[in-house]
Amino acid sequence: MPKKPQRPCQYPGCPKLTSGLYCAEHQKQMDYHYNHFQREPETNKRYGRAWKRIRDRFIKAHPLCEECKKHGKLTPAEEVHHVLPLSQGGTNDMNNLMALCKACHSRITLEANKHNSDR
Length: 119
Hints:
Order of helices and strands: EEHHHHEEH
């Protein structure tokens, strides 16, 4: 499958091309800013180094998006989703995790957040 064309880094004044929003250098800066200034401290505690190891192991064992696979598409998994969110008592147990592509993860998260706000 052909790759999408690269586009300029969205960091102001950066001329580098990237396939994401930011080049590797600026992605690190933006991740740092997000984790330290925008994210809740409790969330940072739940998604630390231990979570990264769990996530990497899960993606290695489940390399394809589980939602896309249900529809006959083979899409690489990029995200690990908690079926029952940690904030609602979920755990990092393998039975509570799903491997998803970014599009499916965004859609499922949006639907869950909408459902929770309707309550």
